[in-house]
Amino acid sequence: MKIITKSIFLVVFFLSCFGMLRAQNQTQIQYLSGTDKDNTVEWDFYCSDGMNSKKWTKIGVPSCWELQGFGNYNYGRDYKAKKEYHDEHGLYKHKFNVPANWKDNEVKIVFEGVMTDCEVKINGKLAGEIHQGAFYEFKYAISKLLKYGAGNLLEVKVNKMSSNKSINSAERNTDFWIFGGIYRPVYLEILPKQFIERVAVDARASGDIIADVFTTSKKASAVQVKLLDAKGNFVQNLSNFNTEKKEEKWTFTGKASNIKTWNPENPKMYQLEISLLDKKENTLHTYFQKIGFRTVEVREGDGIYVNNQRIKFKGVNRHSFHPESGRTTSKALSIEHIKMMKDMNMNAVRMSHYPPDVHFLEACDSLGLFVIDEVCTWHTPYLDTKIGRKLIEETVVRDVNHPSILLWANGNETGWNNELNDDYAKWDIQKREVIHPWGIFRKTNTYHYVHYHGLAYDGYVKDKISFPTEFMHGLYDGGHGAGLDDYWKVMYPMPLSAGGFLWDFADEAVVRTDKNRELDADGNHAPDGIVGPYGEKEGSYFTIKEVWSPIHIEDRYIREGFNGVFRVENRYHFTNLDACTMQAKWVNFDGPNGSANEQVISESTMKLPSIAPEQKGKFKVNLPQNWTNADALYLTATDQHGMEIFTWSYPIKLPKSYNKDKVSYSGNGKIVTKTNDSKIEISVKELDLTFSAKTGLIEKVVKNGVLIPLSNGPVLLDSKNEIDNVFVTNSKDKVEIKALMKAKRKYWDWEDNDEMIQEFFKWTVHSNGLVDLNVSIHSTRKTKGFKGITFSFPEKEVAGMKWLGDGPYRVWRNRMKGTKLKVWENDYNNTITGQSGYVYPEFKGYFSSLYWAKVRGNNNNGFSVYNHNAHTFLRMLTPDKPTEALRGSDDTKWPSGDISFVKNISPIGSKFKEIGEMGPTSNEEMIFGNDDAPIIIDLSFEF
Known about the structure:
There is one protein chain. The chain has 4 domains: 2-192, Galactose-binding domain-like (Jelly Rolls, Sandwich), CATH 2.60.120.260; 334-547, TIM Barrel, CATH 3.20.20; 551-651, Immunoglobulin-like (Sandwich); 671-942, Beta-galactosidase, Chain A, domain 5 (Distorted Sandwich), CATH 2.70.98. The protein is built from 8 helices and 67 strands. It has a 9-stranded antiparallel sheet. Strands 1, 3, 4, 6, 9, 10 and 12 form a 7-stranded mixed sheet that branches. Strand 55 and strand 56 (771-777) form a beta hairpin. Helix 2 (331-343) packs across helix 3 (358-367). The radius of gyration is 33 Å and the shape is elongated. The model is unreliable at 2-23 (pLDDT under 50). Pfam families: Bgal_small_N, Glyco_hydro_2, Glyco_hydro_2_C, Glyco_hydro_2_N. Monomer. Its cofactor is Ca(2+). It catalyses: Hydrolysis of terminal non-reducing beta-D-galactose residues in beta-D-galactosides.
């Protein structure tokens, strides 16, 4: 964190981006604090209790004092565990100078956010009443309290807990971290004596504008309005608007011509330059307001419309949070988070569970995200209606002009005070609708964490617009991407579904300054993110990116007769598909000892066909003359802004065909075989192998005198058959060891059918040291067990792996999307997703579409294995279970052993849903559906 020891004087336009003062009749800003978490100003500070308490020292402002080493930590759910809520207070002092020429101005002090009760004094005198409520901007007029041309003293007392029980109940008994301090910037607002207090604008997609200009000026006789672009360039003069003055408000109406509308796919922003004029047309004050032209409608029994287009929210919940600074963030962090959301092809974000920093909403406006803005209550409403009304006013007055905001949320999960539902409209010129997250209210049903079968949506509120404001809870590695594809296949085509919001964006793990700076997510309460606390991308990040791609490509398999045609659906709301491009890249991959980079044999870029939003069509990839020689095809879609939408990978060669020239049996050596009643020992070149004579399982592998600890395999999973016989066959260039299981009647054969089946596996040791393994497993129609084989390989002996297959992230049965077929390499890590390590991709787990893998050993040579069968998963070790994984968030099953090759894998659930409640691919029962053809696994080992 950068500490600035002197006050920063920044002269900027208030709510504009001009960066310099053009006239004395414009608003000036002087920061008394720093601007964000990375730029703070030291103030004198005293903390009443906890760390570094009971002494005057220094603290950077803005900040949460716990993260600066003061006070005590509390998580909001501590009240349920009957833990002590710490009630320390902080005293702040800061000296600042005021120029003599400000005496002719109006000066206000603005606090963007203070936790929680805040008493402000200027030169020993109260600036106004104590402010209560932790997440809201407030200001005081202090012109009469200042010493001009001299030094001034600002004193602030901050109580972490409020004296208002309703505030504590709504904001502190919550499911997020509790902090204390002046955590958002503090600045002086210097205005001319005759000034515009604020502006509220309703700018419609049609170009129609209604604006309320609030002023107490007695000298104002007219309002002049100009429309500027986002950079401040003149667009058109709007002074011919109709204007009307009533009490302390001017209202003007009119219409802008030839404007571009705002939407998240093309967020066109403008500015209004509003000047207050006296009778002689002298400018008293000029005010700049950013706007976007768009129309929001919630049509009962139909949907949520923006610019006459029905919307599907692809959204996420987001806390204002950074692990090292708590609720103190920065514009850079806001932009980083929004870009990650848009990279996941999201179009919406819900403010959970309080209004965010201004810069976050500004970035949503400029970068393009729909927003649900929310006042802070969690399960418990503001029972004190008076304070609730005040905080709603502060929320709406601050945020009213952001085009990104579509809806207001009156609290969270039964936290709404019904006496306040209509207060939003009192302050919102746009009259945006109010929702109750997790409630059925007016036109909407925002139920949380519905199970898959609940998507039938056939209850007594089936005429309500449905969009869960929280779903697919991402505790640890569960939820989020896991199950999302199943949910979205139902939600997307539902006429009354307006999409939904995932819970939530980032793991809220905080740096504990009282615990050697360890990261603490308060057990299983806060590790719910798609990304880690520092933005580390988890596997679900990429699953969401594919599932929510606005270019939806129908599943396609490249086989003989492929004609290059792909069926596609345009899932944009406002963009024709011909605004995007598609790159086709035909690639080849090296083997285990080659390069990890794919070799491009042909590539081309095409413009996609003209397909309107919500319509379907086709596009065709040109087939190069040698396309059948490629191993895979990559299709990369790029949007109109040059951003990658997603890259899909399509295998052209299946593993058997691909590995045909990678596995060599040349270079013969002498094979020596020794057998007795218990062991079969084979030596060839520098390789010594030991197998059990009774079971055929491999017991020991030694290469150049060094043990490679692959053993106890292949154990046939989900098989109750016992070994019947083991046969050894010797020839000049190979040795075969075949283990036959006891024959078993087909399970559907009854007494009148003698057809029998027999499982087996066969080792073939070749004279060049290559070892083949062929396994035949009885296929059942369905099973909840694993079909495949497994081996032992101690975890401590694994250093990493390189592989050709889907990656680099592990998969679950209900989270297969988001990977890419190529050569990957991961070092060993023991990350417990969301809890510890935070190194991604996780090393341990299931990996799909295996072609080959090279396992690197610790103090051993490891081995390479080639897989010759399609649709085979590699299971690499067993991930450690997280602490207190609720319901299905780690209700996973693993094969025995350490390294496995399987045909089916486990799904994973979520915090609130067991796996059986999350859709077809979340069911642990696998349908194989073939009693005649066995399951074949063919591997080649290179030690």
